[in-house]
Amino acid sequence: MADQPSDQSNLDRSFVAAMKAAEGAPDSGDAWDHLEDLADKLGRPDDVAQLYRDTLEQKLAPDVFRTVAERAVQYHEEWFGDAPERITQLLGRICELSPSSDWAFERLVMMLTSNGQWDELLTAYDRAIASAIDVARKKQLLDDAAQASKDFADRPDRAADYLQQLLALDPDNAHLVQSLERLLERGKRHRDLIALWDHRLEHQEADERRQTRLRIAACWLDELGEAPRALEVLRALLEESPGHEEACALLERILAQDEAELSTRRQAMSLLRKNYLVADRPDEVVRLLGRALDFVEAEERRPIHRELGSRLAILGKDEEALDHYRALVLEDPTDADARKQMRNLADRTGRHDLHAQALVDAAEASSDQPTRASVLLDAARIKRRALDDAEGAIAIYRAVLGAESNEASHALAAAHALDELLAAAGRDAERLDVLETLASLEGTQSGRRAVMAEAARLADRLGEADRALANWKPVLDSDGRDLEALNAVVDLLSRNRRWAELVSALERRADAVQLPLQRRADWVRIAEIQQRELDASPAAIDTWLRVRQTFGDAPDVIEALDTLMSGEDRQEELAHILSEGASAARHRNVSLLRRLGELYREELDQPEQAVTWYAAALTMAPADEVSREGMRALLGVKGATRDASAALAAAYRATDDDESLLGLLDHRVGAARDRGEQASLLRDAAKLYLDRHKDAVAALGCLCRALPLEPDNLATESLMMRLADHTGRWVTVAESLRMAGDAAVTTPARAAQLRVAEGSVRRRLDDIEAALEAYRAAAE
Question: Are 183 and 150 in contact (CB under 8 A)?
Answer without folding.
Answer: yes
